[in-house]
Amino acid sequence: MKIQLRIATVVALLAAFTSTVQAQTNVTPKQKATTTHSKRSHKPAQPSLAEQVKEMREQFQTELDDLKAKLAARDAQIDALQTNQQSALHAAENAEAKSQATASQVQENAAAVTSVQSSYNDLKTQAESVTASIQQVQKTADKIQRSIDEPVALHYRGVTITPGGFLAGEAIWRQRALNSDIYTNYNATPFPGAGEAHTSEFVPTARQSRPNVLIAGKIPFGTLAGFLEGDFLAAGSSSNNLQSNSYAFRIRQGWGQFSTGHVKFTGGQMWTLLTEDKKSADPGQEAIPLTYDNNPHVGFTWVRQPGFRMEYAITPKLTAAASLENSQYQFLASNATNNFFFGSAGAAPGLNNPLANYTDQVAPDVIAKLTFDPGRGHFELGGIARFFRDRYYPNGTSASAQNDTKLGGGFVASAKYPVLKKLDVGVHLTAGDGTGRYGASLLPDITVHPNGTLAVLRNAQGLFSLEAHPNKNLDLFGYAGTEYVQRDYYLGPTGKLVGYAPPTASNVGCFAESTPTAETGYAPGVGACVGATRDVAEGTLGWAYRFYNGPAGKLQYGFAYSYLTREAWTGVGGAPKATNNLVYTSFRYFIP
User: Fold this and answer.
1) CA torsion, points 275, 279, 281, 285, in degrees to nearest 10?
2) Of 109, 300, 495, 548, which residue is least crowded by CB atoms under 10 Å?
3) HEC string for 141-169
4) Rounded CA gap, 291 and 496, in Å?
5) Among 304, 268, 294, 116, CA closest to 205
6) Cα separation of 461 and 445, whole Å?
7) Mean pLDDT in the chain?
């Protein structure tokens, strides 16, 4: 624009100058001659005006041509720049179009990738699902094959038959001999006056081998089950330890059960309902001490006897149970007269043992118990009612004979709680009148009045337990238990004290050892010693280790040590005390 302005200015000046020149050219010749003459006389001759104008025109034309050339060059540059700009714009538009196309393609590719990824994930999930299904099928197949090769139970018609139990090779060493197998009669531990209080005994045995079988089947309205268990701790007329050790198989448990909904009914021979359970009140759930003696432990409440038990699950955690059970009496008295009876020796034709005494019970023992399983631990509370009857003769004649019934009973309470993950602590207590038979020491339930009526004795038994399970193959255990019976006596018509543990009873022969009573070698000395037991106590430590625990069963070895004390009521000569050290070893193979 500046060049064009300059050109316009030059043209305007040229036009103005041309007009001036023309005006001067029109002056008269006279004037012109005068002026020319005058100038010639003073200055050299100058170019004429026309020449100057021509020269100026030429100069202006040259500048104008230069300006045009520059303007043309500038226009060419502007055209080139515009062309380049257009090219750049076209290129930018093309680039933007390509970019948009690329972005669109990228989006399409991203969508495709997402679709492919989704398809891959779906395929992966399906593959994992298929793999899991294959693994599950394989596990099921393995389980089926294992159930065929290694059946947990046998199936016969509509029932499942599950064998169990163990075979045992065991031994017990007693510091003071009792002439007993692996069943210890704690209340018979001899006082120092007995010859066998000064001799020990070592008794190896396999008689505690204990096979069992559980039979169960479903029916439309519930479940039927039966359990049979036995061992060889029975002695027949040919049983001995000389040659064949041919001991008889005996029934430990034999019961049938029907269950439907919240209700279970069991009938047969089983552990008493007073025995502490691990869970609920079901037969087969008994919390038996881990010791190896067939008479589990002092302070442990137990008998195995016929009965009928009803259970009702109030909630999954709370169960109520009641039972009617066989009743037998434990009797002991000093200075009693022959004016009463409550039983007799067994009748061999009636298939009872003629060498054992049997009670003519008037009614079964009635037991009720509540159990609570909150998720950690097990708790029990219950009671028992017992009926003791005898026929007595107040005047010593049958004319005045009559029956007399006394009521006894007591309560039971148990608690077992895991104080640590692998350590359980338990407490058990049974106490009442006439409950001695339910303790391991078999302390007496009753004694007798001078007139022949029965008197019920007060009893108590308790057990404290610690059971640790450091791992699945090792058990550690410790127990402390005690059983007590109260003395009870009355003045008889002859001036003698009648009853249990009268202070006039002679304990003189309980302290000094007596000489043998025969020359056979089987008649150790026994002094004149009433020695009515007041208390029996026992403490035990032991362990059990399973070397193998798998499909083929369990192989277990164990060891235990017990210290036993027996203390008597004071009589003439004092209050004797007996002690015993017991050592157990046990090797058992458990049937899988």
Assistant:
1) -60
2) 495
3) HHHHHHHHHCCCCEEECCEEEEEEEEEEE
4) 44
5) 294
6) 13
7) 88
Distant-in-sequence, close-in-space partners of 535: CB < 8 Å, separation ≥ 6? 482, 483, 484, 485, 565, 566, 567
Domain parsing of the chain, residue ranges? 2-106, 177-202+261-590
Of residues 117 and 322, the one with the higher pLDDT is 322
CA distance 270 to 251: 10
DSSP 512: S
Distance of alpha carbon 185 from alpha carbon 180, whole angstroms:
8
Q: How many separate helices (H) and strands (E) can be counted in the chain? A: 3, 25
Beta bridge partners of 265: 258, 310
Going by CATH, does the domain composed of 177-202+261-590 fall within 3.90.1570?
A: no
DSSP conformational letter for 47: P
What the block records as the tokens of 492 is 């008889």
**Cα–Cα distance, 116 to 294 (Å, whole number):** 73
Task: Say how far apart CA 83 and CA 100 lie, in whole Å.
Answer: 25
d(CA 486, CA 55): 165
For tokens 């009857």, what's the residue? Answer: 389
Residues 464 and 476: beta-carbon distance below 8 Å:
no
Both tokens of residue 415?
Answer: 């608690």
At 565, which helix (H) or strand (E)?
A: strand 553-568
Residue with tokens 């380049």: 84
Q: Is 388 exposed, middle or buried (0-12, 13-18, 19+ CB in 10 A)?
A: buried
Q: What is the pLDDT of residues 452-474, one digit of tens each?
A: 999 999 999 999 999 999 999 99
Structure tokens at 545: 């280790």
The pair of structure tokens assigned to 586 is: 């046990």
The backbone torsions φ and ψ at residue 465, rounded to the nearest 5 degrees and listed phi first, read -135, 145
Range from 84-88, 151-155, 531-535 that averages highest in pLDDT:
531-535
Once rounded to an integer, what is the mean pLDDT over residues 417-432?
A: 96
Amino acid identity of 388? F
Structure tokens at 156: 């016969």
Residue 103, Cβ neighbours under 10 Å: how many?
10
Quickly state the pLDDT bin for 210 (edges 50, 70, 90). Answer: very high
What is the C-alpha to C-alpha distance for residues 280 and 364, in angstroms, rounded to an integer?
Answer: 23
**What is the arithmetic mean of pLDDT over 241-252?**
88
